[in-house]
Sequence to fold (390 residues):
Amino acid sequence: MRNTALIDHVLADAITGTQVAGVVGAAADADGTIYNDAFGRRSLAGTARMTTDTVFRIASMTKAITGAAAMQMVEQGKLGLDQPAGEILPFLANPQVLLGYDGKGNPVMRAARGVVTLRKLLTHTAGFVYDTWNEDMNRFATETGLPAARTGKLAALSAPLGFDPGERWEYGINIDIAGRMIEVASGLDLETYMRRYLFEPLGMPDTGFVLRPEWENRLAVVHSRGPNGGLTPIETPRPAPNPEFYAGGGGLFSTAQDYLTFLQALMHGGQFNGSRILRPETVALMGQNHMGALNVLPMTSYKPAMSNDVDLFPGMDKKWGLSFLINTQDVPGRRGAGSLAWAGINNTYYWLDPKKKVAGVLMTQVLPFGDKTVLDLLDRFEEAVYQNVE
Fold:
């Protein structure tokens, strides 16, 4: 017996006080969509209501979609999971590792030991890091003017490694580079590729890298949470016009319903809305641990305006599949062991529970990442969803 009133209550409660300006929640089980609703406003500076077709900057939720596109290339034999990535992108053939800085403040580099591969890129074990969560790379980017991947400049992908390929897990620009591999291997830019082979076949009309004019009036505004807990609407950089590449690690706009459609395609073994995007065995492979004995590590922030320190499911060993975080234990009342998940820096979240056949999407636009208020809301939302399917 469905009781979506409980989910309504959880989300409606979240817009009271200074928790969130607005929120959209969507969920599905094996039988289809069980919830899709919106509460609050798109911006505290305006009166426009949050709606289920509100467009969000989904940031790193882009990664799972790029992972699916990469696995399409693997199925076609155009990319290999363990093929040296330098065969596709020559600059990856001889990468350098940033070891730190010498007494004069100069960066210390050496040649990397090991090979960058698509598998390592998709699992964040290739060595590439983000300056938000890596102190040395933060300094390197500041002092050298290294552009961020979101600028669409290929120079962003020339960053040195933070460690040798395969040495450990650290979150980074790895999947931006995987996206560039797709562009080179397919001969299409990532916007065109994803539209042609993912978004149009699945019926995801409101997802893309290019901010369309018809989205302007449906776009949610990002808010910054201050030290007192209050929220302030902030200006967000627009996508770069005519980018040299599309940032497969974080450049997409989407809606909760569109993203849920993508998750439903994975839930159903790569087929949904009459279209197949991946083989069932490929989807199963993506959900397996591909980092071996390595574990996902806590993320310490060096840009407090962008991210808090983040450690999801503290105390639990966590693995990484081919673009997903994997929890290794059941979460009581919520997702089962082996579920796939991740997030976007503006506090958008998703999960896919392959065993229980449950998927959920929670969309807000709040900085910094790892916002405790939104994470608590995610917990309550997920619990309410599972009460409707178990």
Observations:
- The radius of gyration is 20 Å.
- The chain has a mean pLDDT of 97.
- The chain has nine helices and 16 strands.
- Residues 372-386 form the longest helix (15 residues).
